[in-house]
Amino acid sequence: MEMAVEEMRLSRSEHANKQDPMVGAVLVDANARVLGRAHRGKLREGEHAEFTLIERLLKDRALDGTTLYVTLEPCTVRQPPKSPCAKRVVSARIKRVFIGMLDPNPDIQGHGVNHLQYRGVEVDFFDLDLNQQIREANDGFIEQYRQAEPDLPDEKEREGSSEKEKELVRSASVNDLSPEVMREYLSIRRMSFPIPSVKLWDFLQKNGFMGWDEKRKAYVPTVAGLLLFGRRPEDALVQSKVKVEVHKGTRVKAEDIGGPLLKLPDKIKAFLEEYGPTHTVIRDFERVEEPEYPWDAIREALVNAIVHRDYQEGARVSLQLLHDRLVIKSPGALLRPLTLAKIRAYNALPYSRNPRIADTFSLLKLMEERGWGLGRMRDILKSHGLPQPQFNLDSGYFVVSFPAQERTPGAVEIDSALLKRLDDRQRRIVDLVRERGRISRAKCISMLKISRATATRDLSHLVRIGLLEAQGRGSATYYVLTGS
Fold first, then answer.
1. Is the Cβ–Cβ distance between 338 and 159 less than 8 Å?
2. Is residue 271 within 8 Å of 305, Cβ to Cβ?
């Protein structure tokens, strides 16, 4: 993989008016001996790395059982008489292919993977850190697809993960779309069209959000278009609603939350803020109530569930806030070649069955674009003293669980930044206050065997940084946790 990345950096662009991808490829035999290395434009301008390896450098060699490492997903579309690289790989009887980055065009993304797997080639991905290097080297090439018209693959190559989101929702119409949400999207893309207008419908059609219904002689939204921009997509796609449950004691507050996918996270956040459990924390000179689980971590898991789920009918995303954990379930098994082991190791390349929806969330900065979402989720939980997330598969669902932290009922937590400002003796004073509810200067002196001056200095410091408050007057003064 590292050799392929090194080779990628040697790529030669053949166009002066657009950014060509930097691609490197390495082919090894069954004994892991390197048979050849190539990069885009190695021998001739515009020649793909895979073509150079298979058809030029190794054209007289049998490649049965070999393994190809290539930094960009092999193409499935070329202008005739050129043949796509994915087909060349299959024809050469290459056994395995490791891919560093998926095609950045959402309407083609995953088709190279599908083509290879469908024809018996084993497919796997590069490690996530190398994927980041490849994306950084190809930033300009990737950015072109923010504005470019999609280059659609042939119908016969469009098997696999991304077909549901392209289906027309014939029971819906352009009147079911939200002008407000579309304006937000167009603003981010630096586009301006009258809403409604034929120009807008044509733009949305080119981006996979709209299609022409020949029978009705009218534009209608696709599944992706209605899910992202529909006022009430659940009217036509009931599976788009998210079921949210909060369990408190013997009571359960539940609601089915619908609306455009782009607005779902905010709606669910509002529901959890109103009904979710909280715990008490002292921070910045005040006592505050914080949610049991940090919203940023929940949001990462929730957005992944909404974006990458299987939108076939009959199943919904669900979020359950139980007594001892938070559970988010997303319909659909993992797409090959993703594995549970790679996800649990936080080394899974982002690969969505809904690339158009995923690309829109990334474009609007509503999800991590480059595969760091799972690691970020883990780090957020850790910073709040919570266990790392758990990932499982259960009856056709991908399940993310956040175990709860064990807390003493009624206990007050102290912000870690405040605790770092304390020495061991001051921490002991705080622990005594938490255990006893209050403490006086005299008790500090007797229990910690310290002088009056030291006790006065420590208590004054704890008041100054916002951990303790002084109550009473004169010799009857005592100290409690802030806000008690």
1. no
2. no
Q: How far is CA 240 from the centre of its chain?
A: 18
- DSSP states of 304-354 as a string? HHHHHS--STT---EEEE-SSEEEEEEESPPPTT--HHHHHTT-PPP--S-
pLDDT score for 443: 92
pLDDT score, position 467? 84
Percent of the chain surpassing pLDDT 90: 64
**Which position has the token pair 């949210």?**
244
- Using DSSP's 3-state secondary structure scheme, residue 140 falls into helix
Query: Looking at 50, 73, 165, 413, which residue is catalytic?
Result: 50
How much is the pLDDT for 351? 86
152: nearest Cα among 217, 190, 105: 105
State which H helix or E strand residue 80 sits in. none
- Cα 68 from Cα 189, distance rounded (Å): 36
441-448 and 424-436 helices cross at what angle (nearest 10)? Answer: 120
The 3-state secondary structure of 423-459, one letter per residue: CHHHHHHHHHHHHHCCECHHHHHHHHCCCHHHHHHHH
Beta-ladder partners of 286:
283
Asked whether the beta carbons of 37 and 51 are under 8 A apart, the reply is: no
* Residue 306 CB burial class (10 angstroms; 0-12, 13-18, ≥19): buried
214 is catalytic: no
What is the token pair recorded at 213? 């219904």
Q: Which two tokens stand for residue 126?
A: 């590069």
Integer Cα distance of 29 and 421 in angstroms: 58
Token couple for 457: 């200095």
Q: For 310, phi and psi rounded to 5 degrees?
A: -85, 120
Q: Which residues contact 439 (CB under 8 A, 6 or more apart)?
A: 429, 432, 433, 478, 479
| Bridge pairing between strands 96-99 and 67-70 | parallel
| Rounded Cα distance, 86 and 111, in Å | 9
Tens digit of pLDDT for each residue in 44-96? 998 999 999 999 999 999 999 999 999 999 999 887 888 899 999 999 999 99
Per residue in 315-326, pLDDT (tens digit) is: 999 999 998 999
| Each residue's pLDDT tens digit, 15-38 | 877 888 999 999 999 999 999 999
Phi, psi of 244 (to 5 degrees): -120, 130
Query: What's the rounded mean pLDDT across residues 336-363?
Result: 90
Interior/surface letters 275-288, b for 16+ CB within 10 angstroms, e for the rest: bbbebbbbbeeeee
